[in-house]
Amino acid sequence: MARVLAATAARYWVATGFKQNEPMTRTAIDLADKLSRFDDHWSPKVIAKLNNYEIKVVKLRGEFVWHAHQDTDELFLVLGGELTIQLRDGDVTLRAGQLFVVPRGVEPAPSPTARSTRC
User: Fold this and answer.
1) How far is residue 44's CA from residue 61's CA, in Å, rounded to a whole number?
2) Domain total in the chain
3) Domain of 74?
4) Where are the beta strands (DSSP E) in 1-119?
């Protein structure tokens, strides 16, 4: 299982924790705490907003479908484990502490590697 921080564009609501329309606070966000609050996989949780971007944490297990974001880039920052992002022209493998930005319109298929067992 890999733990990933992701950012995608959003214009409609502000979130900290898991509550919609809550105003931003001036406190640090503890990523480990946010990840400990849920067990489901491939279900991103919004933890903050930066301009028009939602900052999300997600737990990954197994492969995800090929998909594309036509209007925004997508950032993957691996917090634990290892993640392979399959791209049509080659794969990118990330370990804890590494990030990769998938440009808008490019199709990724993210998948944690078999060695990613920590949560």
Assistant:
1) 13
2) 1
3) 2-112
4) 2-9, 15-16, 19-20, 45-50, 53-60, 74-80, 82-87, 90-95, 99-102, 108-112
Structure tokens at 41: 């996989």
Nearest residue to 34 (alpha-carbon basis) of 9, 17, 14, 51: 17
Determine, yes or no, domain membership for 119: no
Instruction: Provide the pLDDT confidence category of residue 67 given band limits of 50, 70 and 90.
Output: confident
In a domain, 118, yes or no: no
Tell me the C-alpha distance between 34 and 28, whole Å: 12
Percent share of the chain, pLDDT over 90:
30
Q: Is residue 6 part of a domain?
A: yes
CATH number of 72's domain: 2.60.120.10
Query: Does residue 98 lie in a domain region?
Result: yes
The share of the chain scoring above pLDDT 70, in percent, equals: 74
Q: What is the pLDDT, as a whole number, of residue 18? A: 44
Residues 112 and 36: beta-carbon distance below 8 Å: no
Compute how many other C-beta atoms are within 10 angstroms of the C-beta atom of residue 28: 6
